[in-house]
Amino acid sequence: MGCGILTLRIGSGHLGALRAQPKVSLLLTMIFLFTYFFYCLTGSCCDSLGSAGSGPMGTGVLVAQDSLRSDFTPSNSLLFDSILGNSLRSDSALGSFQGSDSALRDSLSSGSASSHSLRFGSASRESGISDSALSNPEFVLKDSGFALRDPPALRRALTSGSSLMDRLRPSISQENVGTAEENTVEPVSDPKDSLHRQETPNDPLSFAMKDSVRSDFLRSDSHTREPLRSAPVARTHLLATEDTHIPDSSDSLESHNKDITGHSWAQNGTFPNPSPAPSPGAISTYNSFGTKRFPQAIIVGVKKGGTRALLEFLRVHPDVRALGAEPHFFDRCYDKGLEWYRNLMPRTFEGQITMEKTPSYFVTMEAPKRIYNMSSDTKLIVVVRNPVTRAISDYTQTLSKTPSLPSFQALAFKNTTGPIDTSWSAIRIGIYAKHLDNWLQYFPLSRFLFVNGERLVSDPAGEMGRVQNFLGLKRVITDKHFYFNETKGFPCLKKPEGSSKPRCLGKSKGRPHPNIDTSVLQHLQEFYRPYNQKFYQMTGQNFGWD
Ligand SMILES: Nc1ncnc2c1ncn2[C@@H]1O[C@H](COP(=O)(O)OS(=O)(=O)O)[C@@H](OP(=O)(O)O)[C@H]1O
């Protein structure tokens, strides 16, 4: 059919001549046709035209078609450099594939396009091209093929050696990144609000319930993200969520959780399976926006210890990039595989630390072994807090979801007044020595940092100094970053340069606790004492809970 183009042109060109000089024209036409037929028979013209496939196409398209055929693999892998490179060399195909480039069109427009591996230019990187890439304004999908709105951009991409995805990603991210407001912080309606946490100095376990109207939390511009704004990093931070054991929608940010693609996360903070499921090598963990790495440090516990505060404070550091939501990989989602896990991580540059926090890891039997198998070098951070206060905090969270919950005392003691019920998770989690013992089967003590949860509240900068040392980070986070918010009754992050928008954690962090009978508290305190002592011994740290 390639020959058909030429035949048609010749034929129509001679129709007029036929009318004017019938005999001469007929003769000339016959001579020409004979010559042409002979020429084709010798193979001099059909090689190129014949190989061009079916349908009328311009030269550039033929070149592209050639490239397509020769480089098209059964898995729809396309050597884009040769396709587009050839096209660039041809005027007519520059930025516009038309006609019968169906293979290319199909591969780009199909739902599975993201699994196609595209090797592009001298960058020779592997990138998954996704639907969002296809909806990028630089691409136009046409019935007859696809075209680039901005061919010079393509030319620049090809000549600069960067990948197509590198070119596409900035516009994707600009459209979809979360705003600074979508963080784990909420607004304080009035910082001078006189609602305070009622904490009896002599009895840190007693909290008044009358603070129930404390909806006084800060939303602000993202101080913690500030250092990242100038960096060419797509803000892939997933927004922080509340503890996921008992979903807490009172943390308004959960409902705002969106990833870079604009997909909402589940309200309870667990992750959807990133779709499509990554097959090894199919989705890039590496591009010029950084690399998706396994976390080098994990906040593994403890639930209600102050893990969210720690993570949010750490995110102030420009060399820390942390997953906002709790992935629960090493306890609940392990069967999804390590690549799934890694793909959740934010991209980091050389020198930056990837982190996540899932407090339930600390009490998960299998977690130490699993983390060890990922990397025995993983640094492990445990935020611990008086186990009695922690148990009440845990109970308070459950109570906020289930108002009909039995009293704390009824749950803490067998038959209400009998022995402590260690089968209740709120009690069991606080036996830190027992859980640590399991971890020490896999990791040496030097791999751990135990953050004092009480001190994280009373001296956040001091505790953050320890954390930064442990992580080998420059001491960037100092007391200049914190102020004590009277309304919230907790330290919050300042906005740089004295801006009026500080950041506090959400309203589910720092909740008022119900009043618990002193005898119950004492009983619990006694129960925990030997375990606490053991824990001090094991860690070489006295947390002063007794
Ligand atoms: N700066 C600051 N702001 C607010 N809250 C703070 C802060 N620092 C520590 N805390 C304490 O953190 C407790 C919640 O712990 P977690 O974040 O580990 O909870 S969770 O396991 O993720 O649900 C939370 O427990 P409750 O007071 O019971 O709500 C707080 O006491």
UniProtKB/TrEMBL annotation:
It comes from the Eukaryota. InterPro entries: NST/OST, P-loop_NTPase, Sulfotransferase_dom. Its EC number is 2.8.2.-. Residues 295-537 form the Sulfotransferase domain. The active site is at 304 (for sulfotransferase activity). Disulfide bonds join 492-504. Keywords: Disulfide bond, Glycoprotein, Golgi apparatus, Membrane, Signal-anchor, Transferase, Transmembrane, Transmembrane helix. It is a single-pass type II membrane protein. One of its GO terms (cellular component) is Golgi membrane. It is found in: Endomembrane system; Golgi apparatus membrane. 3'-phosphoadenylyl sulfate binds at residues 304-308, 385, 393, 509-513. One of its GO terms (molecular function) is [heparan sulfate]-glucosamine 3-sulfotransferase activity. Residues 189-200, 245-261 have a biased composition (Basic and acidic residues). Belongs to the sulfotransferase 1 family. This is Sulfotransferase. The gene is hs3st6.S.
